[in-house]
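Methods — Computational structure assignment.
A single polypeptide chain was analysed. Its primary sequence is given first, followed by the predicted tertiary structure written as structure tokens.
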Amino acid sequence: DSDIVTKKFEDGFRTRLLYHHVVTDEVLNKKSFEYAFRDASRLSGKTAELNIKSTASSYDVMVDKDGFIWAGTLNGLNKINPNSKKVKRFLREIPYEGSGLISNEILCMLEDSKNNIWVGTSNGLHKLSKNTEKFTIFTQDNGLPNNLIYSLQEDNKGRIWMSTNWGIAQL
């Protein structure tokens, strides 16, 4: 049945939710972030050194399928190339023009099976196309129960699930 969520999905989602609640009660401090960064680097099979100040107040860290390390911070999104050590920053557009971040407070991230990066913020859900580096925004105006996105997960059918202030929702 297409409405049944697999055990693997439930476990992964529960883990991300637990991680979120631990992290949001206290933003990752520098030492915690360095540990998460090293762990993400190890899982990607790459070795990288951390030397960026913008990650000091990070909520989430992940490694995408291409080996780039992503750090969601209170001051935007960082894409880190572990080979060149270059950092690309994505910040809120001022004024907002419709293709960038609408909020700099990045709470969670997910790379889906279609190679998109999903970014949960304090003001909505963003889908980043890695090809164009443009964001598509989803908010309460698009049917989300709330704009505060705590955690993201993709199920085995490619559906994106999220936890919000007003419960769990599927996009």
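Note: The two ends are 18 Å apart (CA to CA).
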